[in-house]
Amino acid sequence: MRTAIYPGTFDPVTYGHLDILIRGKELFDGVTIAIAADSKKTPLFTLGERMELLLEATKDMPNVSVRVFEGLTVEFARQCGAVAILRGLRALSDFEYEFQLALMNKKIASDIETIFLMTQSEFSFVSSSAIKWAASLHAGVSDFVPVHVEKALMKKYASQRTLEDD
Fold first, then answer.
1. pLDDT category of residue 121 using cuts at 50, 70 and 90
2. Among 67, 99, 100, 121, which is 20 to 30 Å from 93 by CA?
3. Which of 41, 138, 155, 161 does the annotation list as catalytic?
4. Among this protein's residues, is 90 annotated catalytic?
5. Is 151 an annotated catalytic residue?
6. Active site residue 41
């Protein structure tokens, strides 16, 4: 069985992420979504919340699993028995960083390939950061994330506003 991992922070999962996942799972027998626990980013959602959001978003996708990992992505790929790391690219600006990361990963684990998929054009401008910013300003983000994710964003920002008002 040829499997891949799809690593990221997924804070929150977007339609762009799901687009890459859906297309990537057509290339492999299975895909493990790998939620990074030790990211340089400061996430809005906890690891548990991100896991729940991804499990809901992928509940009808056979051969897709969701796991949390710490440490090197290539080491986690080996633990999973994956032959590839799946990565999405939105714009040329993503490529330089991803290319450097892929070369480093290849040096560390020559047996694991990095597969880049370009996002569909309708998702090329969608980022988790932009979605969080829009949601924090009470904008609807249902064009960019599943309904359950939009509800979680609105709930999270409503609770933050309540805390700030106290």
1. confident
2. 67
3. 41
4. yes
5. no
6. yes
Distance between CA atoms of residues 161 and 77, nearest Å: 39
- Dump the DSSP string for 3-37: EEEEEE--TT--HHHHHHHHHHHTTSSEEEEEEES
Instruction: Give the lowest-confidence range in 32-41, 77-86, 147-156.
Output: 32-41
The dihedral sign for the CA sequence 38, 61, 19, 158: negative
Give the pLDDT confidence score for residue 137 in this predicted structure: 94
Active-site residue identified among 25, 50, 87, 90: 90
Q: How far apart are CA 119 and CA 36, in angstroms?
A: 21
Active site residue 17: yes
pTM of the model: 0.92
Distance CA 2, CA 24 (A): 12
DSSP 8-state secondary structure symbol assigned to residue 110: T
The class (CATH top level) of 3-124 is alpha beta
**Residue among 25, 50, 128, 132 flagged as catalytic:** 128
